[in-house]
Write a structure and sequence with these properties.
Largest sheet: 6 strands, antiparallel
Distance between the termini: 32 Å
Order of helices and strands: HHEEEEHHEEH
Radius of gyration: 13 Å
Helix content: 40-55%
Strand order of the largest sheet: 1-2-3-4-6-5
């Protein structure tokens, strides 16, 4: 695994649609949680606010979004049947539109959850 120093460096390895989507997620998290800080954790972009807020990553066929177990469970009705998911991960296929509204709702939920810590 490559050791990235920051999110800019991580995103710079991608091009086209993947890069655009990573930048869009990054901008959305900054908008929803302006006090959150950026870091690389587990080798991928991470936003931190009283603990890890969300992680995200680019892959060949999808964008991985990691809001944690409660972040997935809370929005299961919006995820199930539409996206691959597991306990703390949702995969957004590159061949489909990025669900900006859903990502925003999850980030808002996680931000409120972490602010309460």
């Amino acid at each position: 695994m490559e050791a990235y120093q920051n999110i800019d460096e991580y995103i710079a390895q991608f091009s086209g649609e993947t890069k655009e989507r990573l930048e869009k997620i990054r901008a959305l998290v900054h908008e929803m949680a302006p006090e959150a800080t950026e870091k690389i954790s587990y080798g991928i972009p991470t936003f931190y606010l009283n603990g890890n807020l969300v992680h995200f990553a680019g892959y060949k066929t999808h964008i991985g979004f990691y809001p944690g177990a409660k972040g997935v469970a809370t929005f299961l009705a919006d995820v199930e049947g539409k996206y691959k998911y597991s306990k703390g991960t949702i995969q957004f296929p590159l061949k489909e539109d990025l669900p900006v509204e859903l990502i925003g709702k999850i980030v808002k939920f996680r931000t409120e959850e972490n602010r309460a810590k």
